[in-house]
Amino acid sequence: MLIRLDDVPEIAEPSNDLVMRQLVDSTSGEGNLSVTWVRLAGRHRRLRTDHSTRLYYVVEGDGWFALGEEPEVAIHAGDVVVVPRGTPYALGGELTYLVVNGPAFAAGDDMYL
To answer: Which residues are CB-neighbours of 103 under 8 A, at least 6 positions away?
Structure first.
């Protein structure tokens, strides 16, 4: 399966200062994983999911990530952040990243804090 970024529609999520493109969802990833391209310009609200482990790969830009009760850390292009299921987190900055969920993201997984 080949997925071209420009063939996937953008979805705006103003409450989290982002636009995204769902590249692989629960149906195309057979429920095992999902992959979403995201462009963030601001702050993503603090949240957690009890359903999946998440991996954030920063494609470009700079920002910060706050994982659990740890202090914020700077993130840059090429960095990877792994968020274990059930761990609260937040992020912000001017960056583009991929978020991978295993198992795949499903509506209702995000619990905003």
So the answer is: 26, 31, 32, 33, 51, 52
Residues in the chain: 113
Domain boundaries along the sequence of the chain: 12-106
Residue recorded with tokens 């978020």: 99
60 and 20 Cβ atoms separated by less than 8 Å? no
CATH superfamily of the 12-106 domain: Jelly Rolls (2.60.120.10)
State the pLDDT confidence band at 58, using cuts at 50, 70 and 90. very high
Contact 31, 4 (CB under 8 A): no
Q: pTM for the full model?
A: 0.94
List Cα–Cα distances, 37 to 27, 86, 89, in angstroms.
17, 22, 18
